[in-house]
């Protein structure tokens, strides 16, 4: 777990030091997508080999949709009072 | 939307290949580990850039900081409530941790992958991916029926980049700054809050 923080912080420091360098900024955005696809492929691959996960795939999909909906509903519900208190920002 | 659909496709393709594994002998598990750290490094790098880019926005009224606080706590409460329906399959902390990605699917699933393994990482990846996609699709409706802050809330951590254009389009330009603040604060919360929540699970 500490490794996650160290690597993340190292990247953050590098990004901080290299700010204003638009080339690196652009390349790093593309690299994040690229590495993400590779990692998700690898994640899918290891999940695909697990018989138990394959059997519960539909449940997992449904559960994740429910979590997304609940998270969105909760956060919208919590900011609603603020909306009524402060009104529409466009006006 | 393109990226999130492609991530879904990559996941499906990976599962299919894994199911009919022909690569098993060639597969090196350490490869994913290296990939994870490479990805984390570049996510950190992007965050380093981003935090500086929006520095000037952070001289705003304290009111504006209430939005990410409310969005964050609303998300966790929503996840807690829905975890009651999933008690047989997951511990409450696991469901809340998946929700605590606030839509930032890459970072949240990586951290969960490292701490809790494949299954929960996939749950977090999908839950946060769906949150982003649903925000992209439903923002106009949310804004019309529940007010301009609703798309910002729904977007969570993504309200500073991927969902920002649709938020501005549906809620108006005056919501752009608060959307960015909301996104930046929640994004920086993700790497701290997920390990914290998971530390309460067995």
Any overview of this molecule?
The complex is a heterodimer of chains A (91) and B (202). Helices cover 86% and strands 0% of the residues of chain A. With 91 residues, chain A is mostly helical. Chain B has nine helices and no strands. In chain B, helix 4 (92-99) crosses helix 6. At the A-B interface, helix 1, helix 2 and helix 4 of A face helix 1, helix 2, helix 3, helix 4 and helix 5 of B.
- The Rg value of chain A, from CA coordinates, equals 20 Å
| Terminal Cα span of chain A | 47 Å
- Count of discrete alpha- or pi-helical segments spanning 4 or more residues of chain A: 4
Q: In what range is the share of β-strand residues of chain A?
A: under 5%
> How would you sum up the global shape of chain B?
globular
Low-confidence stretches of chain A: none
Number of helices of chain B: 9
Helical percentage of chain B: over 70%
Can you summarize the main beta sheet of chain B? none
Helix content of chain A: over 70%
**H-E order of chain B:** HHHHHHHHH
Output the radius of gyration of chain B: 18 Å
Which structural category do the helix and sheet elements of chain A fall into?
mainly alpha
In terms of per-residue confidence, which ranges of chain B show pLDDT below 50 for 5 or more consecutive residues?
Answer: none
Blueprint (SSEs and pairs):
The complex is a heterodimer of chains A (91) and B (202).
Chain A: H1 2-17, H2 22-48, H3 51-55, H4 57-86
Chain B: H1 2-19, H2 29-53, H3 66-83, H4 92-99, H5 105-116, H6 118-146, H7 149-155, H8 164-171, H9 176-198
Search tags:
heterodimer; A: 91 residues; mainly alpha; 0% strand; B: 202 residues; 9 helices; 73% helix
Tell me briefly what this model is:
The complex is a heterodimer of chains A (91) and B (202). By secondary structure, chain A is mainly alpha-helical. Chain A is built from four helices and no strands.
């Amino acid at each position: 777990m500490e490794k996650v923080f160290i690597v993340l912080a190292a990247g953050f420091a590098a990004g901080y030091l290299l700010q204003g360098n638009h080339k690196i900024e652009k390349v790093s955005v593309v690299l994040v997508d690229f590495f993400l696809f590779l990692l998700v492929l690898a994640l899918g691959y290891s999940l695909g080999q697990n018989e138990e996960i394959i059997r519960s795939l539909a449940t997992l999909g449904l559960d994740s949709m429910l979590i997304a909906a609940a998270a969105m509903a909760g956060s919208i519900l919590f900011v609603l009072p603020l909306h009524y208190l402060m009104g529409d920002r466009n006006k | 939307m393109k990226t999130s659909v492609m991530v879904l496709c990559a996941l499906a393709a990976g599962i299919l290949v894994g199911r009919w594994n022909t690569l098993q002998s060639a597969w090196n598990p350490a490869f994913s580990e290296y990939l994870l750290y490479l990805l984390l490094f570049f996510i950190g790098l992007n965050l380093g850039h981003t935090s500086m880019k929006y520095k000037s926005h952070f001289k705003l009224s304290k009111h504006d900081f209430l939005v990410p606080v409310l969005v964050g706590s609303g998300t966790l409460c929503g996840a807690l409530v829905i975890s009651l329906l999933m008690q047989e399959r997951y511990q409450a902390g696991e469901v809340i941790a998946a929700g605590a990605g606030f839509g930032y699917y890459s970072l949240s699933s990586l951290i969960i992958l490292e701490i809790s393994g494949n299954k929960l990482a996939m749950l977090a990846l999908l839950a946060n991916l769906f949150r982003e996609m649903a925000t992209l699709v439903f923002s106009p409706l949310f804004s019309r029926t529940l007010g301009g802050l609703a798309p910002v809330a729904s977007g969570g951590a993504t309200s500073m980049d991927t969902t920002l254009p649709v938020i501005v389009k549906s809620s108006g330009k005056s919501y752009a700054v608060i959307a960015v603040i909301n996104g930046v604060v929640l994004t920086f919360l993700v790497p701290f809050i997920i390990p914290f929540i998971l530390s309460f699970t067995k």
